[in-house]
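Need tokens for this chain, all 546 residues.
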Amino acid sequence: MLAASMLLAFANSGCSGYAEVSEKEPTFHPLRSAMSQLGNVEKSINGGIKASSRDPKAAIGDLLVAARDASAHLKAVPGDTAAQDAYNFAVSRVFSIIKEKKLDPWSQPMVVPSAGGEITLTYHPDPRPGWDPKLYDFTPADRFDLSGSYVKNRTKRAGIGAPLVATGRGNNSRMKEDFTIPRIYYGVTAVVRFQGQKAIVDFEDPLNTEEISFAGRTHPLAADFTVPLAVMLATTEPRKFEIMRMLNPGEYAETARIARLQPYDPDKTVVLVIHGLMDSQATWTPMINTLRGDPEIRKHYQFWFYSYPSGYPYPYSAALLRKELDAITQRYPLKHKMVVIGHSMGGCISRLLITDTGDRLWTDLFNKSPEETKLSPESKKLFSDALIFKPRKEVGRVIFVAAPLKGSNLASRRIVRWASNIIRSPLTLLKAGTEGLQATTYKEGDLKLSRIPSSVDTLTPNNRFVKAINRIPLAPGFPYHTIIGDRGKGNSPDSSDGVVPYWSSHMDGAVSEKIVPSGHSAHQNDEAIAEVRRILLLNRKLSSDR
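Here are the structure tokens for all 546 residues:
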């Protein structure tokens, strides 16, 4: 326990939070417009703000009148940004009041008073699964201030509508069946249209819709792509579990899974991201936040992640991933081959997706064929899944980022070896490991272990698995790229990102190699993210040319 505490203190020292959010009451600024008639809109907004605490329904009525008058102005002058801002602000405040006062216009229409007569607030039902507003609480995105190491840049799109964070009411009971996250945090944009005395809300998906028809014209749909990610990180605090998932992986076995970050769209190519040692899916936030700001990426790609307890030896994590791929591609058939991006040990896992081992790994490790190796049926199944596999047909391209494909000398250092010894392997791996060690014949120079290898062990250059897998070439027909950090020293091939040396990440057969001035977290580097964008656009072009 002391060792675990020391490692925890070391890992957390000098680190800021991934994301911190605080709520505020947005300030309404006087309208600057060429149309003097907007004075009525401003008056209605101010009236709604003043009435919100004493008479919330009357406040909603004033704000809906403001939104209706602003949309009428936009119909006359589509480019009037003051009218657009007023509309968005008024609609956002409607949702603020609904949440704050615990009102429910979704179970049945809600009638509110206004100077021009009663207005009925309702919504257009959406047939898509999970798009029932009764399942969520909505918070306007403009209420949030953000800070933290993973949300330094706020990615938005200007346009019509009120960007909202939709937070699921309670845990998602269909999480495993639908391959989603335990609780939904998603960005939607509310657009209110008026039909006489009816105010009808549409909940639009800004990752799927770029433009909408509004007030007789086509307008961009407003969006805030960062806030939902920040709220999810701040609420779930994945950092709390990263070290414990490494030190005690068996306790977090159920977290080894693929999950979608957005509704499944068969026409969009999947980008599957895989994190590294002592990390979580949260590490991809800066990249996903930036890439979602690109309309071409939004149009053609959807993001999924594979997360796993990083204390597992990575061949075992790769075996679990293959089972997840079997299940998710049966549930969500892919029209396009996915792009896999692996950081650090996630890159090692990604490598195994495009490798045909036959029984070469097995015979290299045991010096016997599978049939000749004496193991219990349970252990033989576990080793077969981890050592005998074929390339995945779902995969079309792989990007390796700071990946220790040939191992890292850092994993051989005494303090890291000590840390490896305190990782608790689950009983299933302990049993198989004991049998496997008895059946293994070591060669000179091999890392010799008295226990089942941990994730750290499978990253050492003299580990039997690392040496064996690097004698097997990658399967043909799978283009791959490397992104490597050099800490800004510009000294490759003698460089290192501080954890992984250049010689370990370099791959002779790569379509491209990009060296970025970064430490080991190269996947969060601006130049690396730009390189991923370039590769994704290239992948899209090549796919469309076929």
